[in-house]
Specification:
Structural class: alpha+beta
Distance between the termini: 31 Å
Number of strands: 21
Number of helices: 6
Radius of gyration: 22 Å
Shape: elongated
Number of domains: 2
Length: about 325
Amino acid sequence: MKKNQGFGPLWVLIVALGVILAVGGVWYFGSSPQTKVFEPSPNNPIWRVYDDTTNGFEIKYPTGVTLEKQNSDTYLSFAGDNKVHIYIKVTNALSVPLFGTFGGWYQYKKTTGSPSLISAATIGDFMVDYFVQNGGMGSWDRAINAYQMKNGMYYELALYYPKELSMPAGADRQAAVVKASADLRDPNNAYVKAFMQILSTFRFTEPQGVGIETWNGMTFDYPAGWAVREDKYVTPAQIAKGTPPSVVGLIIGKIAGANQYVVEIGGRQADCRGNSGYTKCVTIQTPDKQLWPVHTINSDSETLSVFNAIVQSIVRHGGVIYNY
């Protein structure tokens, strides 16, 4: 298993991002007081480990930083600041948290760019994109989005760093972009420094799937506590004729109290194209060229994590994420 080799000095990042593009709707944030977030290095034993055994990776984070989960989001929070977070995400669609501007995660493509993407760089095995965007009403979205791809999925760590600022009239917007983005890559900025150190601890691990299933040329792993059953369908006319139900898909699920966690492969009339009822949906092409949708309507973090892990395991076993 390949492991990351670490990062070069932070000045490499500064040199790589020397050229900043002009962006509409962006303004100068001004200097802000620095918070002493933490002192230890990533190898210090007081750092904690977040081990995602489902998706197969781990990161380390220091005391004074808290791991939290809310709905479908997993993130690190800094003591003393309830607005700055480091989001941790595994997804098949590249996205960045821009809550003030877009009301949530903004999906973007590197080939087409984004109206708020101001610069990009490579740090270790990660691509790193910098965003600065005016969210309106004095709110400014700023984010550093680091990601790398494995088995068709993006592994993302994103520093969301908003600001509340007034907009001075008549200033040079080009200069504003340069100054605002410079603050994001300042090695003395406590939050940026924390983000880069946490990012340097990322490494892939072996996913801990406990079950393996093969169906219609597709093989996948599923975690402990989850079970697989066939999704069957039969019409009233077929029932009248005594025709047995047909297997139209597989349901991978878990029931915990009143909550049901479900990921489905296939299913009657299931299709990722144009179906807004799914929270996530990915079409898989099997080695024998069949196309099957993998989908869920759940939005909780556990189901979405298992969904990602199932898709990744299908790819590991020879399936391909199919793009229409």
